[in-house]
Amino acid sequence: MDGIQGLSIEQIRADLVRDLSLPLPEGFNADTYTPYRGKPAGLLSDGQIIDLGGRSLEVIHTPGHSPGHVCFYEKTSGYLFTGDLLYDETPVYAFYPSTSPSDLVRSWERIAEIPGVSTIYGSHNTLGLDPSILAEVKQAVKTLRENNLISFGTGIHYFNGFSVRF
To answer: Could you read off the pLDDT of 145-155 as tens digits, one per residue?
Structure first.
């Protein structure tokens, strides 16, 4: 694999430096960047439990932002690590050829039903979102469906605490 299916290396390189708020690491050159091409040490599967020694994480397959996207849930603390599936302040991206708006919405539905979530940790912006955002996710899914907006090109949709770009 040479990067992200459906995106040229030129687009990937441009996206690496778009909207940066901090300088790139010394010696990193986006113009010569090439994606990692090694073989994975292993694959994660939906429902798999990862033992961290005294704590465990459940793997939750949540495609949409990317086909293989996963969230991790630590049941004891109620921590849900959503990666690029859910965060605040800036839109979740689901407009690239490698994304799927319908999968993303189904993944939102899935995480909104997880019982006992105490804190949500997305990959961007605020660290530690209140779980009340999951009720907003349910409402967003309903609104998107009722208005037939779950498809490429429908733009940025703003909700209470988060947004998405299709």
So the answer is: 999 999 999 99
Q: What is the CB neighbour count within 10 angstroms for residue 17?
A: 12
Q: Which fold has domain 43-165?
A: Metallo-beta-lactamase; Chain A (3.60.15)
Give the H/E segment covering residue 92. strand 92-93
- Is residue 147 within 8 A of residue 159, CB to CB? The reply is no
- pTM tops 0.70: yes
Q: Report yes or no: 140 and 149 within 8 Å, Cβ to Cβ.
A: no
DSSP 45-62: -TT-EEE-SS-EEEEEE-
Residue type for position 131: P
Q: Where are the chain's structural domains?
A: 1-38, 43-165
- In sequence order, the β-bridge partners of residue 127 are 121
Question: What is the greatest pairwise CA distance in the chain?
Answer: 49
Q: How many C-beta atoms surround the C-beta of residue 81 within 10 A?
A: 17
Q: What is the DSSP letter of 25?
A: P
